[in-house]
Amino acid sequence: MSPPKNNLLLLVGPTAVGKTEFSLHLAQRLQGEIVSADSRQIYRYMDIGTAKPTIQQREQIRHHFVDVVDPDAYFSAGEYGRQSRRVIDALFRKGCVPIVVGGSGLYIRALVDGFFDPFVHDNEVRENLQRRMKEWGPKPLHAELMTIDPETAGRIHPNDTQRILRALEVHEITGRPLSLIQRESRGVMPAFEPLFIGLTMSRPVLYERIDRRVDDMMKKGLVDEVQNLVTMGYDRTLNAMQTVGYQEVFSYLGGEVDLEEAVRLVKRNSRHYAKRQLTWFSKDRRVTWFDVKEDESIDSIIDRILDVYTTAGKRK
After folding, report:
1. Residue 1 placed within a domain
2. How many CA atoms lie within 13 A of 209 on its CB side?
3. Which domain holds residue 258?
4. CA triple 151-157-161, angle to 5 deg
5. Which of 157, 10, 164 lies closest to 74 in space, CA to CA?
6. Do 91 and 136 fall into the same domain?
7. Which contacts qualify for 24-30: CB closer than 8 Å, 24 or more apart?
8. Three-state DSSP class for 279?
9. Can you say how many angstroms the Cα of residue 183 is from the centroid of all Cα atoms in its chain?
């Protein structure tokens, strides 16, 4: 199939809907490569809890932005937007079809619409802020951010230490609020035409799939994975660890809940997360939705997606 030139296919939707499986089929049919838009799969050592594509799947189809940084590294949506645009441009130039796959709304927004953090960093400023964070905790620093940049503070949870530190760091270095810098960067047009494809299914079926996925994660060794992260020195307060599945297992390892309760919480919080994802993407009128039904084969749905993809190319 001859792909429409510079039409970027973005496959979005809630957790457990089947994005990974669909993306592999699409990449095979289009002879393309996958650009992950998952804000947790970028982290190394976090495989089971993020439902990361397997080594075999990544050997079959090349994936970008999987296993990029360690869990204690800073990697913002803005940085993803910058880097992913460069990768996608390079793929188009060599005649390869990029397929963006993920459920992280901010990553998608940064890529398509522009949502860039300034590329500034100062070790001394960051270390001073980290000392204050360790001494005082996140709430006083969040309150400080609220006074200098209420727009950014309003988007950040008071316990999200990494994003609080980053916003304060940017302000101290540049003298400008992060929200203002991001607002000025929006509207930077990408060198592609986005085509959003959304996968959805009935809530009862989706929630059942989520429950099965969580059970499978536990069988594969999610508890051991989190224990290994602890052994490696990664703290539960890290931004990477503010993730459904990891927080609940941290609570189990800390003796706060038993294993049965931890599993129940992972399932409940995963359903809540899926609902938030659906709410986010449903607000974007650019998304063409496909209802994934159990009585329709994946190849049939792929055919319908490709019809939309090629038709969009002919309209250009």
Report:
1. no
2. 18
3. 7-115+187-314
4. 105
5. 164
6. no
7. 24/53, 24/57, 24/60, 24/61, 25/298, 25/299, 25/302, 26/99, 26/302, 26/305, 26/306, 27/61, 27/97, 27/99, 28/61, 29/1, 29/302, 29/306, 30/1, 30/3, 30/97, 30/99, 30/306
8. helix
9. 21
Which strands make up the sheet holding 287-291, listed edge to edge? 63-64, 32-36, 97-101, 7-12, 193-200, 287-291
Structure tokens at 203: 């809530």
Closest CA to 36 of 46, 23, 55: 23
Lookup result for tokens 């230490």:
161
231-267 pLDDT per residue, tens: 999 989 888 998 999 999 999 999 999 999 999 999 9
Cα 36–chain centre separation? 8
Into how many domains does the chain fold? 2
If you ran DSSP here, which 8-state letter would residue 24 be given? H
Q: Would you say residue 251 lies in a domain?
A: yes
Whether 307 maps to a domain, the answer reads yes
Contact 125, 172 (CB under 8 A): yes
Q: Is residue 29 part of a domain?
A: yes
Summarised one tens digit per residue, pLDDT across range 151-204 is 999 988 888 888 899 889 988 888 888 888 777 766 567 889 999 999 999 999
Query: Would you say residue 25 has pLDDT above 80?
Result: yes
Q: Output the pLDDT for position 5.
A: 61
Q: Which two three-digit tokens encode residue 277?
A: 């994802």
CATH of the domain at 138: 1.10.20.140
Q: What percent helix, strand, coil does the chain show, rounded to 5?
A: 55, 10, 35
Contact 243, 49 (CB under 8 A): yes
> Which CATH number fits the domain that encloses residue 95?
3.40.50.300
The verdict on 75 and 107 lying in the same domain is yes
For the record, the structure tokens of 274 come out as: 């899926």
